[in-house]
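This follows on from our talk about sequence and fold. Go ahead and set the record down below:
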Amino acid sequence: MDNKKNLSRYTKEQLIELIEIYSKNWLATDGVWFQSVESAFGMGEAMKHDAEAWKRFTVIEAKRIKEFLKLKDGCGLEGLAQALSLRFYANLNDCEITFSGGALFYTSVKCRVQSARERKGMPFHPCKSVGIIEYGGFAKAIDPRIRCECVSCYPDVTDPTCRCKWKFTIDE
């Protein structure tokens, strides 16, 4: 079956809906394997494997988005903003991208992962350590000069108005 021909029969609206479905499926897969390891071996072991998975996946995702957007090497924070807006998470979480004082701030106002864990009566995912790997690796794959730091992320929440917040600057 020619997948491009198959997809071409759908409307733009249907394809956007399909992207959302694919994004939810991706996140469900991520959550299912994580909860399986967490249940069998504990949070520490699950976090170890999560960190390793994100170290690899975030670079793959960033490189594919960078290629899709035709971003040049050294595209800086503007390029990163474009790339962040096309991540799988961008379809699932309520996120904001702002610029202030020469820095880019990426804020996840609502997070499907934390909302799902809260709904199931589970403790919040301690995502800061993996987030540093994920967001830092993504940014460096877009432009190696970009540095990432955590402003607020569970378990170190400094901004109660959001689920997490990340600051990106250029190392020159």
